[in-house]
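Appendix B. Chain record.
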Amino acid sequence: MSILAGTFLPTLVRRERASLTAAMLAPLAALGIAIILNFSVYVLMGRDPAAVLYAMLLEPFLSWASFSEVLLKAGPLLLIAQGLAIGFRAKVFNIGAEGQFILGAIFASSIPIWFPLATGQWIWPLMLILGAIGGALWASITAFWRVRLNANEILVSLMLSLVAAQFLNYLLLGPWKDPAGFNFPQSVMFQYDAMIPTLISGTRVNVSLFITLALSLMAWVFMQRSFMGYKLKVGGLAPRAAGYAGFSEGRAIWLSLLIGGFAAGLAGAAEVAGPIGQLQRSISTGYGYAAIIVAYLGGLHPIGIIFSALFMAVLYIGGDNAMVSANLPIAAVRVFQGSLLLAYLIAVAFVRYRLEWPHAHHRSSQP
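Structure tokens predicted for this chain:
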């Protein structure tokens, strides 16, 4: 009689050389897959999918007021994603940018809260510096636990985000609560000199957008042209080879986490000193988590991240439009973001790997 000797299940085999064209088309393929999947979800929800996609993907471009809000949202997403991408390429997975964002906002807010009568154009730049320091310090806790105690940086950084959120609640319900704020958990409004100057008249877009673009250029130079960036990439691709070459794994972990924390903290400072103008509990809007999607959707490349940050900002503003015009729940917007990341990871997997189907064969055996 015959028994099955092989398997019909395919296996993933790494390609010798990934196609550059396929890698560039992967985000577009992921977007198409995400649109098709969510189109089906909207139909099942009883919503008009055409109206939802129109409000989500087209309306943000139809007026200058809407597009200026897209630019405003893109700033913190871009800044955080650039910092995270450097660590991700070194295989250091900082998932706690949300907490580092919050600490940056807290550190920056200390100046206008403690010195509400201070004046001068030095205030908002110092707030940005303090915010970046706060984010880096919060990330350094994760780096210490990872290097000295071999703790998993994913779990440590994620748990620290929860601690940061509770610390923010304590401040806004206690010592930093505005006594004239009708019992709302928020700080006093910041003085004029504590606000980042507006970049485009009639909008909320401020100078921090220029700072973010400049830092994106620096991220490209660091990863593509510097020896330290090269060491981080080698450490991520071939850890053993990096070790033989004398590259320090501990130094790479510290540098990756500090850069990510610096960027997230700076984004938090720019948020409270920019469009918000005070420290609020709602400062934690999920930028730190959405930036992970932005980083991967941009292929962990500084230039690609600029476009993915812009697109994610469109989803934020378009999602708000869809909630109003198409009665779409906020959860559906987050499902779109998550499905987009999932589709992109699948597309990238097929860029780097190919399916190999084994030949089925049989053999005979005598009882």
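Further analysis of this model is presented in Appendix C.
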